[in-house]
Amino acid sequence: MDDDAFVRVEHVWKVFGKDPKRILAAEHRESSKDEILEKTGAVLAMRDISFSVRKGELFVLMGLSGSGKSTLIRTFLRLIEPSAGTISVDGADVTAMDREQLQDYRRHRVSMVFQHYGLFPHYTVLDNAAYGLKTGGVPEAERREKALEALETVGLAGWEDYYPHSLSGGMQQRVGLARALATEPDLLLMDEPFSGLDPLIRRQMQDELVDLQDTLHKTIIFVTHDLHEALKLGDRIAIMRNGEIIQIGTPEEVVTAPADSYVQEFVQDASPAKVLTAEHIAEDPEVLLYAWEGPRTARRILADARREWAFMVNKRHEYLGVVSIDDIDREKPLSVDDLRALARKQIGTCSPDDFLEDLFPIAAESRYPIPVIDGRGRLTGVVRYRAIFDSLSTTSSTEQEDKHVSVS
Ligand SMILES: Nc1ncnc2c1ncn2[C@@H]1O[C@H](COP(=O)(O)OP(=O)(O)O)[C@@H](O)[C@H]1O
Ligand SMILES: [Mg+2]
To answer: Ligand 1 pocket, 69 CB below 6 A?
Structure first.
């Protein structure tokens, strides 16, 4: 297993019903959820779940209703006791904790945000946000300070004296998030936190969570039944079905290589244009000019390669622009500086994490491939127009095949 795992889940099972141990005995281990229900009346909610989450990772559990997501996320708090297996957080075995350890862990190390906010109607926004700190025994002044800070983080500064009923759903969920953040947990659990919100507000909350995570770098386990939400938020996604994890992967992996037809069905209508990034389809430039080699070398490289033009970089591999043979022949640059001055920089570029859908307009406007420039100005690759279309059509042809199969 992953050595720098912060959260480790190993062979976790959950049976709802009488005598889980008997169900977990060999005779039923291989039976399906339906068979177990039929033969024993017990519900197998989790079957042999194992995965790990790295520190600072946003890990998504995705699956249809009833697939076991809530059961799984609740075992992290031991609101539900697993029937077998272990869960550890930052090296501490949560499944082995006694009452006192568990209480300490729940107060200081982990927080949960629920779908239905779970706010106290007769508490102000501030007192709601400070609730976890209060039960954790934090003195009042410090409580106030930390709760105000958390409210500011979620964009609710100025709302501290209001009561939940005067807030919109989106704002109430921000209070829920502030309450979870106020205790500065190492692990944040979120069970369909945005599912109750209108689509527009929901997308806005997703965007804000992405922004927040850029600065907070929390370890987050996020549950959703919505693939688009999973793809947008997850560093990695675990797909659950009938109490099992059937695939774990990055959004790209899940979309481009679905583990089976169940995942395939899920991802069928996920547009790769909204998932794949420039980095994913970038290639090395065939010819590259190095400014310090000077104009004569640049001309020779282009001529030898039978190329009209090429991108140019400096010694730090920073992108300088595009230079053509025609430019060189017309302007007759004599020095390295002349050559650099010749490089045209006005062509459209992109960054490694731009989505394909954002590349279309750039590609349409430019007769060159799109240079991919990282945060330090370096050329990391080029995106060809063809590559954009190829990556889109690969996925749609598998869709075709699948439709064909389902007809026959
Ligand atoms: N307390 C319970 N008693 C019996 N069965 C339960 C209980 N809680 C959940 N289940 C069953 O366990 C399965 C997983 O449920 P749940 O974890 O809530 O799924 P999800 O959150 O993915 O919708 C379902 O079949 C559900 O009916
Ligand atoms: Mg659920």
So the answer is: yes
Give the pLDDT confidence of 146-195 residue by residue, as tens digits.
Answer: 999 999 999 999 999 999 999 998 999 999 999 999 999 999 999 999 98
Q: Are residue 28 and residue 88 in the same domain, yes or no?
A: yes
Q: Are residues 254 and 348 in the same domain?
A: no
SS3 string, the chain, reads CCCCEEEEEEEEEEEECCCHHHHHCHHHHCCCHHHHHHHHCCEEEEEEEEEEEECCCEEEEEECCCCCHHHHHHHCCCCCCCCEEEEEECCEEHHHCCHHHHHHHHHHCEEEECCCCCCCCCCCHHHHHCHHHHHCCCCHHHHHHHHHHHHHHCCCCCCCCCCHHHCCHHHHHHHHHHHHHHCCCCEEEEECCCCCCCHHHHHHHHHHHHHHHHHHCCEEEEEECCHHHHHHHCCEEEEEECCEEEEEECHHHHHHCCCCHHHHHHHCCCCHHHCCEHHHHCECCCCEEEHHHHHHHHHHHHHHCCCCEEEEECCCCEEEEEEEHHHHHHHCCCCHHHHHHHCECCCCCECCCCEHHHHHHHHHHCCCCEEEECCCCEEEEEECHHHHHHHHHHHHHHHHHHHHHHHC
Cα(241) to ligand 2 centroid in Å equals: 13
Site to probe by mutation for ligand 1, drawn from 19, 43, 112 as the one with most ligand atoms within 8 Å of Cβ, is: 43
Are residue 98 and residue 206 in the same domain, yes or no? yes
Which atom of ligand 1 has the smallest separation from the CA of 73? 17
The range of the structural domain enclosing residue 65 comes to 5-109+185-270
Pocket lining: 70 vs ligand 1, CB cutoff 6 Å: yes
pTM of the model: 0.74
